[in-house]
């Protein structure tokens, strides 16, 4: 099992004075709870009637399946696995190919099938078929990175040890000047330096849904946004519309490449792509706004 880097950087970021007004505006726009993340996000992965440790395993598998995958496809894969029994025992019993058959719709399904099986073995051997109790331990599991680790701890314990920053949270935090970073991991560190702890549980679902419905990577709907008067990036909607009308139907190169890769090959490794491109705090490669698919999780 490879040891993941644990970012130690502590960067104090000073947010705009009116961040609370911006937050309240987003809460207002999210009241209808009509984003994919509200209906079929990670919190719906577990069978609420299952024993607690089975639910924790199901949350973990749901998060592992969700990287570079639309919520609807993740949800379908979870339902498929639950129909045969999404437990540590069952995943140990199935072959990689059998697991793969049930999760074909998700990005990097072959690698994820391999990782789910490895994780089930580790949980059986080290944790009595339960999941690790701490963030530090959960991110040592294959295919589990910092974002998944923080979201898993939140889902499984009801407490936040850190903020789960995916491409939506990363993009929007930087648009709002809540952070100034080229990587999701840098954004996480900066957000955690100032955002009150009682908001750490809420921010991921709040902002992911806002990104899915109002402020996507391409063509943010600034003209109907309640916070457009105080958003530092409110000119983006106009710029994006002008640009996209000129380049109509052209797919951004990286998004196309990412989708091609997500169709899977046995050599694809989401932890190589996802972790090193998006989550390594020492990696200053920019996640270009145009490169982000609007409806996928990182
Ligand atoms: S970029 Fe546009 S849609 Fe996004 S928060 Fe700012 S005003 Fe709203």
From TrEMBL:
Residues 267-298 have a biased composition (Acidic residues). It catalyses: 2'-deoxyribonucleotide-(2'-deoxyribose 5'-phosphate)-2'-deoxyribonucleotide-DNA = a 3'-end 2'-deoxyribonucleotide-(2,3-dehydro-2,3-deoxyribose 5'-phosphate)-DNA + a 5'-end 5'-phospho-2'-deoxyribonucleoside-DNA + H(+). Pfam families: HhH-GPD. The lineage of its organism: Eukaryota, Metamonada, Preaxostyla, Oxymonadida, Blattamonas. Residues 65-213 form the HhH-GPD domain. Coiled coil: none annotated. CDD domains: ENDO3c. This is Endonuclease III homolog. Residues 238-262 have a biased composition (Basic residues). Residues 237-298 are annotated as: Disordered. Bifunctional DNA N-glycosylase with associated apurinic/apyrimidinic (AP) lyase function that catalyzes the first step in base excision repair (BER), the primary repair pathway for the repair of oxidative DNA damage. The DNA N-glycosylase activity releases the damaged DNA base from DNA by cleaving the N-glycosidic bond, leaving an AP site. The AP lyase activity cleaves the phosphodiester bond 3' to the AP site by a beta-elimination. Primarily recognizes and repairs oxidative base damage of pyrimidines. PROSITE patterns: ENDONUCLEASE_III_1. GO terms for molecular function: class I DNA-(apurinic or apyrimidinic site) endonuclease activity. Keywords: DNA damage, DNA repair, Endonuclease, Glycosidase, Hydrolase, Iron, Iron-sulfur, Lyase, Metal-binding, Mitochondrion, Nuclease, Nucleus. SUPFAM superfamilies: DNA-glycosylase (SSF48150). Its cofactor is [4Fe-4S] cluster. It comes from Blattamonas nauphoetae. It comes from the Eukaryota. Its EC number is 3.2.2.-, 4.2.99.18. Belongs to the Nth/MutY family. InterPro entries: DNA_glycosylase, Endouclease-III_FeS-bd_BS, HhH-GPD_domain, HhH_base_excis_C, NTH1. It is found in: Nucleus; Mitochondrion.
């Amino acid at each position: 099992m490879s040891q993941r880097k644990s970012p130690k950087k502590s960067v104090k970021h000073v947010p705009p004075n009116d961040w609370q007004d911006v937050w309240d505006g987003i809460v207002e726009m999210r009241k209808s709870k009509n984003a994919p993340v509200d209906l079929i996000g990670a919190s719906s992965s577990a069978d609420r009637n299952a024993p607690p440790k089975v639910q924790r395993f199901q949350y973990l598998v749901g998060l592992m399946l969700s990287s570079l995958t639309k919520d609807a496809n993740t949800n379908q894969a979870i339902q498929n696995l639950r129909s045969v029994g999404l437990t540590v025992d069952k995943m140990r019993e199935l072959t990689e190919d059998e697991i793969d058959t049930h999760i074909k719709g998700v990005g990097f399904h072959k690698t994820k099938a391999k990782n789910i099986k490895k994780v089930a073995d580790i949980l059986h051997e080290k944790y009595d078929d339960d999941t690790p109790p701490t963030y530090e331990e959960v991110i040592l599991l294959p295919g589990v990175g910092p974002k998944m680790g923080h979201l898993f701890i939140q889902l499984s314990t009801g407490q936040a040890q850190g903020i789960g920053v995916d491409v939506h949270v990363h993009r929007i935090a930087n648009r709002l000047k809540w952070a100034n970073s080229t990587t999701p991991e840098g954004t996480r560190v900066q957000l955690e330096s100032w955002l009150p702890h009682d908001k750490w549980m809420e921010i991921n679902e709040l902002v992911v849904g806002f990104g899915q419905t109002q402020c996507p990577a391409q063509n943010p709907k600034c003209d109907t946004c309640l916070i457009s008067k105080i958003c530092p990036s409110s000119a983006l909607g106009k710029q994006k519309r002008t640009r996209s009308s000129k380049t109509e139907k052209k797919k951004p190169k990286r998004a196309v490449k990412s989708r091609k890769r997500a169709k899977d090959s046995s050599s694809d490794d989401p932890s190589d792509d996802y972790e090193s491109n998006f989550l390594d705090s020492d990696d200053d490669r920019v996640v270009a706004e145009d490169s982000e698919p609007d409806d996928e999780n990182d």
